[in-house]
């Protein structure tokens, strides 16, 4: 019983990472109606950036400079800032080439096959930049917070993991509140439903869409950073591994539904940890993807979605 | 002149939808553009609003050349289109739809939203419901209310009577007359020729992208036979 409780806690903690990636996927699908494969790329870039700052990835010169200026124990803050700045800038570049260029050239923002394929291109290119620079072996990092933890009864809670989970839920809650209550949120929902009519209201779609990319990019970047800090081992393909599971979580929750992505993300985290516990690590993808296929067959709208494919679902 | 369109051309690939169109609207005027399906009426409105790029010609709003302006910038300058089929946001509430209408404005609009609710009590009753619950007539009220909240100098309506019952069409045109009496200039695209000519000060008749007839409703009545031929698509 205690072992199981511990596994459930671990699963929910891991789910916190999937939640943010699943929300990023669902935001882009809900708003722009396409499965954005640069999301795994940005997750990976976020994780690799904090790793590189912490573990001399940018060379001994930079590392010495950081140790002299901010101090070794504060390097992680620099890592977080670098990761978030880099993913934000990359998000803007990606928006240019996946969304804006396609819309300008083909005139139809809802043609989603083209951005999907170009986003896949970005994923592969980013992964190979990282492999080219830092190799394909696992990159390990010393957690800046060591093994800080506390107990509730006999169940152990890692302090940074608990903070990460709370942070990811807080971020998703803020996004959901922004969508519901603010002028920007209304504009985003109107674009999700009818981009052309939103333009008639005076919404400058070309200014707001990059913002969607940056929000989704930051979600992935933060998730990547938290993953690196908590699980300390990563590689160039970490984005693929996490994102494929997050997609399963998003589909479970219902495409385009933010709180569905939260429930789905936590659930797949739980499912992954419990599958490893009961079935072993080698087979863990089978229950997750089996669940995904089952959902697609039985209830393609997921738990909370309104429609399987479509728009305007916040 | 409030709106001055000169030599406007709209092409979609090989399809020449609007051919060298000239059109003017003065302050406080109601102008209607009539014509059969495919005559280029909607393309004309889209080019005036800026959602479709014209391949030639100029659009002037209040004396300023706005041809190169984006649609949102034209909205900020008082040019508002109520699109064909109303196109309300069904995933937003009635109230949020009205708030979207005021998107381009910075000042508070709560008082103006209250005015809209006073004008359309049906909308007030459904204030916090998703706009998908509205009937066709209520949707048209919402679409017009939403457009009014942008504080337009010129409101363009694309086929507003489409799909409405005769009584609702009557009410719609009463509303158009009322808005015009309050000083709003209106460009009305319609297939309901009879009703449109009753409200309009001047009319243009389009056929295959070209103006074949223009003038006051009285002048048009004299050429009624010609008008009928154009409307039915015969020549």
Question: Concise description?
Answer:
The complex is a heterodimer of chains A (314) and B (235). With 314 residues, chain A is mainly alpha-helical. Chain A has twelve helices and four strands.
What does this structure look like?
Chain A is mostly helical and 314 residues long. Chain A has one domain. Chain A is built from 12 helices and 4 strands; from the N terminus they run αααααβββααααβααα. In chain A, the strands form 2 sheets. A two-stranded antiparallel ribbon of chain A has the order 1-4. Chain A has a two-stranded antiparallel ribbon with strand order 2-3. In chain A, α1 runs parallel beside α6. The C terminus of chain A is likely disordered. Chain B is of the alpha/beta class. Chain B has one domain: Rossmann fold. Chain B is built from 10 helices and 10 strands. Chain B has a 6-stranded mixed sheet with strand order 6-7-8-3-9-10, with helices on both faces. A 4-stranded antiparallel sheet of chain B has the order 2-1-4-5, with helices on one face. The radius of gyration of chain B is 17 Å and the shape is globular. The chains are: A mainly alpha (314), B alpha/beta (235). Chains A and B meet through α7 and α8 of A and α2 and α3 of B.
